[in-house]
């Protein structure tokens, strides 16, 4: 139907699945590819009549495509709730965008099973790292209760010293309109002039600079985003929260914007490669954007729902569920690839 080869009931299922997955990934501020890539390879062909069997790179390309819609929606929601620092995001994107575009081209020279094993292994690694951080303190919930002005990941760091003005989201859409800047009450003349929130070193955001570890993390994130469509959001959020002491809600919105623009760059590189150099991919125009439109329709609503839930769940709950999703999906992908050869077809 509609030139997709999928019957009407299947199109409805596409929208519902898109909404469900987009709500989940936006609630936990993870890349949509974390769930969409394995879903496009293993779940959608089983549940949706007429859904095509995809190569791994086609699944990654389709995941990048639907991320464009879901994160356009969620980033708008984070912006409206004043949870994005555009100055910091711009500095990170100057590195991540070209790296992701190059890596997306390079992904077609990597064996599909290697991509999937790297994808699953990375998720398991992220789950283990987050678990270790989460279990660092004897009672995270008690620590946050005692220090409500700090983010959860700041409490996890025993040597934490406040280097940033804590940013709490108390915005009420009925009271104040959205603005191009974030922040609360200004603490200095420079802040009063710009209205921006303070991040990192406690100075004006215009003075925010990237150190070598920040650059390396961003390069790694951009590379992984281009290869398998994941990690730039998680790595950016961890860097901002742990290294630069940015509260979790602010780092979530900022990392979502970095993720969004980075995957747009990777998607455009993928489209250009498929359109103008099909001989490199050996696949031609295999990304089924027709069915992707229906999945993306669900993502538009799921992005709003996910941002709404993220703003209302406790940081401890988000962290625990994020760890569980990463671990389960990572193990599933690794086992499926090792024993059944990766893609469904």
UniProtKB/TrEMBL annotation:
Annotated segments matching region Disordered: 170-198
Membrane topology designation: Multi-pass membrane protein
Membrane-spanning ranges: 6-25, 32-52, 58-80, 215-235, 256-277, 289-309, 321-344
Location in the cell: Cell membrane; Membrane
Gene Ontology terms: cellular component: plasma membrane
Chief localisation class: membrane
Alphabetized InterPro entries for the sequence: TM_pro_TauE-like (IPR002781), TSUP/Inactive_protease-like (IPR051598)
Assigned keywords, A-Z: Cell membrane, Membrane, Transmembrane, Transmembrane helix
Keyword GTP-binding: no
Recorded family membership: Belongs to the 4-toluene sulfonate uptake permease (TSUP) (TC 2.A.102) family.
The protein's name in its UniProt record: Probable membrane transporter protein
Organism of origin: Halobaculum gomorrense
